[in-house]
């Protein structure tokens, strides 16, 4: 049995695009003589659909996509994820389901048991818990079809009462399939492979694990689908952050790779860099924009975001705006210009003094002789936001936020000022990782000027200000 | 048996305040010769505690408050809600519990069965589902102790598989207690009383229902606690939006009121008005602020918010800022001043032209001869936001947002402009209700000038603009 893993990128609620993509992959896999093609969790509607699941219209569309996939399955078998209606009028009205389709017919529907409801997950809002554990006859083999969390019954922070794989394993399946929508984080690929390998070793069953790829604003799905033989050896690992269709053989009760395993994977800061670039690309593609604008202060944060944006969108699609105030050092302006030169990115220099002074005059009747303070520091950031948002409005560029997670965690930022932007590129990146990203960007040549890397972090909103006046020092 | 209903206002995570309040109420009820005092759901930590429940420190504090309440229960019985640890290492680590305490001892702990996980509720994130259904011996009577949603097994949009009251009713209880944290909405009090009365009539059991009162930013709990005798007659209804301790007698297997039932309750726009004023008061009290600033355009939305703020905070705590642009009509400025006069509220008039012009000049190198358009309309709203936020920063006033739900629903507003503010007072109020609120405010005398009520809605961001240029007409 030749099995195809379809690691694809879906658009939530774009049923035409998802249908085309799924049926296209079915055709391709059939041309490659695959017997079975496996798609990821809720592939039909994209994951996470969230409260769209409450709309009848949305579920009707899902059902209609399923019908089209069934029609397209002549001569091949398919496992694909989508919502399924709960026939019982009590309880949640939907299940999170895997459909097993073969040669023009829907033969089986399997439901998800463990519904993650923590962190970014809210599946208990929508889905009924499965209580039936039976292997599915897939082309003569007994397959344990599971959905994502079903294999994660034991985690560091939480154990479920139910163990779905144990329940099916009692019925002697030959192979485990898992269709998944498992988001990326710093250590996720290792954690995921450890959990999957443990399940394989525990039940001595080969496993095919198909994850989706793609980003949805604040969640990135990395793909990184894997296949283990029953000895727990990795037979296939699909790339991170890329769509792929790949194949394995299932022969004599175990899985055999068709190509040598590519062991090279990114780790550490290289993987984070790739994730961030992918996240920017996805945000712009899925929201229908091509161009970005950002404030360029000459500091390390905006420097790194500018480099990430150029990598993701192309230098011709990034506009940098320098907005010096009376407190901006000459060095900072010079550094920002040098970086724009290195990246060949268009930039404007727009001093904010006139706007800042206008606001000061306008408010004189209110504040009279109150001294310059935090409110005036913040007002500079807000003047910059007004300029950036007018450019965004007028030219159709999405404003990229250049804050980092360390600043956000302690509130070292200005509401409606430097907190503005459509996408907070580094909203989940600590300041220490920002430096590591800068070093990675400069790995072959100096793109980010060394002056930017070396100077002490400063908001430059009052004379001689340093981040370390208000915050602990960063360990570099 | 004399029973006290403690309809109180808790602070989420302010354990000292909650302990003082609960123990104070216990003392008061004991002085009034009550045998039993009933508090609301999760009273110990306040509802909704959300992800605080994931912190061990938070749960330790809850346990310590419970110990103090137990110590304070000499000579009296108490039912109070709080989180309880799940001893099983599998499943969620907490239950949503009701503690039955009597004369210095914790005698019983009852867990919640139906865990709302929809709309504003996320209880499945934190709590394990109860599976034990036994009445509790309360001073010789068999009490069915239930928690909020436990009585809401059947709703228009959703039915649970489990019916907790049916399960306990099989064991012949004498009375039903329900401790609750049920939020307010337009029709909630009627809906709630209907559901409760149906349960009473169905099982022929008297019911004491204790709800919390208080607001937490976007959720308002109205209290409106009720008591039904076994015939389904309302014996007691506590006021909405007020803390109260009230008493009933339980004699010969039914509940008897101690005072005549006050049948007067607010409905319709009067109730919404009261809820909004209460919401403002609560937001300021719980976040430790006393003063508000708001933009005052001369339109109906800011007029109504100004009146609500004056009612909630007092006229001396509200600062109105008029920020006319070249497109503001003389009428609007005049109307806003007249309204400030009627309310005796301090105001400043700060024309934005100089700031607006400064931004236009600064951006000339970028935009060159691009015509005035939407970006410049939005920029006026953003100039106003900079002024308001500087006042907020400098003087410590919370900025009140003056948008309404109709505008928000269709995106007729400026991001980082009129969408700014700490509290969106009318974020859940439709434009048609804004007019109804204005009429209600003017019920005895003209506070909001008739000119404001009668003129066609306009953002006044370009010459002769009307809302109806971009939006359908409002039905008044």
Number of strands of chain A: 20
Instruction: Report mean pLDDT of chain A, rounded to a whole number.
Output: 96
| Beta-strand percent range of chain A | 15-25%
Helix/strand-derived category of chain A reads: alpha/beta
Q: Given the C-alpha coordinates, what overall shape of chain A results? A: elongated
Low-confidence stretches of chain A: none
Helical fraction of chain A? 25-40%
Strand order of the largest sheet of chain A: 5-4-3-2-1-14-15
What oligomeric state best describes the polypeptide chains here? Answer: homodimer
Q: Give the CA-CA distance, first to last residue of chain A.
A: 53 Å
Account of the 3D structure:
- The structure is a homodimer of 476-residue chains.
- In chain A, helix 4 links the parallel strand 8 and strand 9.
- The longest helix of chain A has 22 residues.
- With 476 residues, chain A is α/β, with parallel strands linked by helices.
- In chain A, the strands form 4 sheets. In chain A, strands 5-4-3-2-1-14-15 form a 7-stranded mixed β-sheet, with helices on one face. In chain A, strands 6-7-8-9-12-13 form a 6-stranded mixed β-sheet. A 5-stranded parallel β-sheet of chain A has the order 18-17-16-19-20.
- In chain A, helix 1 runs parallel beside helix 2.
- The first copy, chain A, is elongated, with a radius of gyration of 26 Å.
- At the A-B interface, helix 8, helix 9 and helix 10 of A face helix 8, helix 9 and helix 10 of B.
